[in-house]
Write a structure and sequence with these properties.
Mean pLDDT: 79
Number of helices: 8
Number of strands: 6
Low-confidence stretches: 8-15
Number of domains: 2
Radius of gyration: 27 Å
Structural class: alpha+beta
Strand content: 5-15%
Order of helices and strands: HHHHEEHHEHEEHE
Helix content: 55-70%
Distance between the termini: 65 Å
């Protein structure tokens, strides 16, 4: 039985990825523009997510978009001209992005958060793949559609009461029992269930906090009812940091 010399084995393993200086320069020149476009488009989506104080912000979307563009570009380069399957590496991007997006989805009490962030990452990955393949016009169009969907459609949902969103209410007063009674009475009138109460005291001031997910109209009506309660001296509302 004849064996393979170690030197011959090293040569065989190195051949598929043995690129000359000219080839590397050609790939680099083409890759720079594609990666920069991917970074720009990913950053645009990230700015919108950052503006809404989401965990997946500018850096996350920028890196995902650039990474997908680079993997798509490398997929064809590493496959070579002789290989019919130039998308072998790029085809695994979808699976990786699926695992990454799943980590953003959280189930908290009576709602699921992070779905929009996970979906935006999935779309940003596709935009990056389009940039890596040199499809700049479709990538720009897709980015514009994402921006409109995330900003304009979200605003319309809020304006016409199509979607419920969570707010944190903080009621302050001198008597904790009266505060809880007034809050419970106001919630009953709005046919909303009170849960997840947090209570603490700062000096003589009692503070009761709770979160509720409802439409814009329901939030406005609840706020009016709570302000009418004599035991509530101060009422504050805050955006829920876990809201999508």
């Amino acid at each position: 039985m004849t064996g393979i010399h170690p030197t011959d084995c090293a040569i065989l393993l190195a051949q598929p990825f043995n690129f000359g200086e000219l080839e590397q320069n050609l790939v680099a020149n083409e890759a720079v523009f594609r990666l920069l476009v991917a970074c720009g488009l990913g950053a645009l989506v990230g700015i919108e997510r950052e503006w809404k104080r989401q965990s997946a912000g500018v850096r996350t979307n920028l890196l995902i978009c650039m990474g997908c563009a680079f993997f798509t570009l490398l997929s064809a380069v590493l496959a070579g001209d002789a290989s019919p399957n130039k998308g072998q590496v790029a085809s695994n991007i979808v699976q990786g992005i699926g695992f990454l997006g799943a980590g953003l989805i959280l189930h908290n009490r009576d709602r699921v958060s992070g779905l929009a962030s996970a979906a935006s990452i999935f779309v940003v990955a596709s935009i990056g793949m389009a940039c890596g393949a040199g499809l700049f016009i479709p990538a720009v169009i897709a980015t514009l559609i994402v921006m409109v969907a995330m900003a304009a459609v979200g605003f319309l949902e809020w304006k016409v009461n199509l979607k419920a969103y969570p707010l944190i209410y903080e009621a302050r007063g001198s008597d904790e029992t009266s505060l809880l009674t007034c809050i419970l009475d106001a919630m009953d009138k709005q046919q909303q269930r009170l849960n997840g109460i947090e209570r603490d005291a700062i000096g003589n001031m009692q503070r009761v906090s709770f979160s509720i997910s409802a439409s814009k109209r329901t939030h406005e009506q609840l706020r009016i009812r709570l302000l009418e309660e004599p035991a509530i001296q101060v009422l504050k509302t805050f955006r829920d940091p876990e809201a999508d």
